[in-house]
Amino acid sequence: MSTSRHLAWRRGRLGELRACLYLRVRGFRILGRNVRMKRGELDVIACRGSLLVVAEVKRRDLLEEGLLSVTKRQQKRIVGGFEEWLSKEYELGRDWGDYAIRYDVLVVGRNFGVHHEEDAFRVDF
After folding, report:
1. Backbone angles phi, psi at 113, to 5 degrees
2. pTM above 0.70, yes or no
């Protein structure tokens, strides 16, 4: 891995750690980080009460750039990966059927900390 790619990867991982700490302080329990599924990777899966949150984390210096970087294609990948995760959880005897599901985006920036965009996209494709 080249030095610049390694630094970008490292910044991304640190951004994910900051996002997880942000969620934990707000009462979420982190169920998974960097969960690899056949349909794609899920950055963070968390729950609070009867709410399951699938969070995509973006490390950007500009908030708007981070929010706009989650494309429809990426949203489909996230939803597909999460459906696969739910199926595997059910096979393991963990049924999340009574939980509300929300797809969030957390943008981590140098100048603005963590911005949490709740319900950033919906499953309507």
Report:
1. 70, -125
2. yes
